[in-house]
Amino acid sequence: xxxxxxxxxxxxxxxxxxxxxxxxxxxxxxxxxxxxxxxxxxxxxxxxxxxxxxxxxxxxxxxxxxxxxxxxxxxxxxxxxxxxxxxxxxxxxxxxxxxxxxxxxxxxxxxxxxxxxxxxxxxxxxxxxxxxxxxxxxxxxxxxxxxxxxxxxxxxx
Length: 157
Hints:
The protein is mainly α. Helix content is 43%, strand content 5%. The protein contains 6 helices and 2 strands; from the N terminus they run αααβαβαα.
């Protein structure tokens, strides 16, 4: 498999691949199936993922609309999108790069009617979430997470 990865990485048309180290190049050119990348902060994970997305698109192994990349923060999603835009040909920017929350929101809105929701639902704000759980915690079937007592409810102390 190492020979195959080496051959792929030297023939790829992805811009800037030479700036990656050997392990990063192997990750970018990885064949089919999942790949786990374990690395610390500032080690180039975002760079590798952006190059991997570009490699999949440029080598025609995936169309841009078939790519989904999820991050935890808006800042990381914007940076990933910016990097991919620089690496793929103009007009190939239909990738789906977002946060996990934005992804969930989009999927729920697209399938809201099937799920019995209104497509224009709104999410609760943090204060609304706190109030909701204070009012409904004991109605939820959460035996494992249910507090043994509550200073707010004298019948549970």
